[in-house]
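Technical note accompanying the year-one report. For the benefit of new consortium partners, we illustrate the data format agreed upon in the data management plan: each record pairs a sequence with a structure-token string. No post-processing was applied to the example shown here.
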Amino acid sequence: MSFRNQINEDLTANLRNHLDENFSLIYSNALDYVKTKTNLTTLPELCPYTLVQVLDKNWLP
């Protein structure tokens, strides 16, 4: 079972609302972490995907 299937099964309305409200901040924090760990410099500053896309089990970038 994929991560997206698992998260969609366990995602409560409260958690989905939290993700909706904080998606940009969560991405920014993750981006900072990845940049520190990998020294990559070509990653987009703003998430190019929507939360709906990220959680969609049939969507691939």
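Partners are asked to follow this layout when depositing records. The mean pLDDT is 90.
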